[in-house]
Amino acid sequence: MKVLVTLNYQREIPPFMLTELHYAAKEFDRVVYITRELENDNSFLIQEKNVSVQEIKKTDRLISLLKLPFLFLRKEIRHEVMQAVRHRSVPPKYVYHLGKELYCTQNLYHAAEPIVKSLIEQKEDIVVQATWFDVSAYAASRIKEKYPQMKAVSFAHAFEINPKVSDFVGYSSDEYKLRLLEEIYFIANGMMGIYKEALPPWISYNSDKMHIRYLGSVRYFVPAAKKKDNKEIVLCTCSSVVALKRLDIIINTLSLWNSNNSVHWIHLGGGPLMEQLRQLAEEKLGKKQNVTYEFTGKLENIEVHKFYRDHYIDLFLNVSESEGLPVSIMEAMSYGIPTMATDVGATREVVQKKEMLLPKDITPEKLIRRIGWFHALPQSEQLAYRNECRAVWEKQFDAAKIATKYYKELGRAK
Questions:
Q1: How far apart are CA 361 and CA 359, in angstroms?
Q2: For residues 300 and 281, what is the distance between their CA atoms, to the nearest angstrom?
Q3: How far apart are CA 272 and CA 208, in angstroms?
């Protein structure tokens, strides 16, 4: 029997993992998803009967806390601390970071190791997969060290491997993980390059272990909406309402709209800055006659897809300050929605037309000109953009094709 043990340490099962679990269940006889306690329990979205979700128990967390002082004595941790002292300053927050990493890793390890041990005793084929190159990858590495006969792999995304987002890239058990994990799958070529450049010189790695594996996105529906008014441009953004997404730039941009044609902006998603965003929109856009807007609040992923199916959107915008490879862009493009986005992270790997890439320091004045340029294009050229972005998604970012191939290969005997 082939068994996949997947490790994650988030408050909910992220949307991309719901997709991954769906396709993993088709290639593995059993899939075990081990996670911290789910504060936003969306495990009911998993329909596959051979997938089980195991949350870390409070008693396990207490045991991990009691073991924490001894975890600082692990060989790889002592080596890393020595290198940190030698090559960089060690601020107090590094000690906090290390303690948190060890505690969270121990929680995952304590929950997963007995399962792996039992499966090995039953002579099952086992793969342990970390969902991020963080504590889940460290836990997978520790299990691999104890049971070298099993296979251990990890995804690597953005926040955990990008020094612009994380202060301790290279000082998060990286050498240990790079040595023990058999394969590391970066979600974009650009992110792999950023990580390699960020590694301190004392860490060596085997490039043959590093691969690009786009996560892609699923398209649940066939696009059905038709354009109703050629004089109106409909813009859409989709993200959490947090500072990193810089949605205030959209509002300040639309405050400059002075065309006789109207513009309608929809934002899909909610977040901690939602009320501030509403207030700013009312202040800047409330009295403009040719600008309208709406905020949907937080939506389930399936509701986002229904929206794309039922509404004709001329242009999808993403002005984030930082990104990995945005799933929101892939989802929009799968419905044939042209996308204009800041050239950050690995965004250019999905937004492949240079004229649709925006500088990271985009200003409202520059953005309004770019939107106006696109709106002025003949309908035939706008349609060509729609067809092309859908074709890019179908060729490179269709999660069904990508995940099916990946799990077939992952499930092969070691």
A1: 5
A2: 24
A3: 41
CA atoms within 13 A on the CB side of 265: 25
- Partner residues linked to 375 by β-bridges: none
pTM for the predicted model, two decimal places? 0.88
Q: What is the pLDDT of residue 414?
A: 58
Q: What's the maximum distance between 2 C-alpha atoms anywhere in the chain? A: 73
Cα separation values, 136 from 130, 141, 354, Å:
5, 9, 36
State the amino acid at position 128 in one-letter form.
V
**Token pair of 254, please?**
């639309």
Q: Let me know: does 164 contact 140? Beta carbons within 8 Å.
A: no
Classified as helix, coil or strand, 211 is strand
Can you name the residues that pair with 212 across neighbouring β-strands?
A: 186
| 3-class secondary structure, 215 | coil
Pairing between β-strand 210-212 and β-strand 357-358 as defined by DSSP bridges: unpaired
| pLDDT reported for residue 413 | 58
From residue 115, alpha-carbon distances to 3, 13, 32, 148 in Å are 11, 20, 9, 15
SS3 state of residue 344: coil
Say what the pLDDT of residue 89 is: 66
C-alpha torsion sign, points 9, 11, 13, 16: negative
- Give the tens place of pLDDT for each residue, 368-383: 999 999 999 999 999 9
Other beta carbons within 10 Å of 333: 26
- CA-based nearest residue to 267, from 386, 259, 254, 324: 254
For 75: left if phi > 0, alpha if psi spans -120 to 50, otherwise beta; the answer is: alpha
Q: Rounded to whole angstroms, how far apart are CA atoms 25 and 250?
A: 41
170: left (phi over 0), alpha (psi -120 to 50) or beta: left
Residue ranges for the chain with pLDDT beneath 50: none
- For 21-79, how does the pLDDT look when each residue is reduced to its tens digit (9 = 90+)? 999 999 999 999 999 999 989 999 999 999 999 999 888 899 999 999 999 999 999 99
Tokens 């937080």 sit on residue: 298
DSSP H or E stretch at residue 232: strand 232-238
CA 258 – CA 110 distance, rounded (Å):
60
Q: What does the DSSP 8-state code read for residue 297?
A: B
| Cβ partners under 8 Å of residue 118, min gap 6 | none
Question: How distant, in Å, are the alpha carbons of 66, 173, 203, 209, 359 from that of 199?
Answer: 32, 12, 7, 16, 26
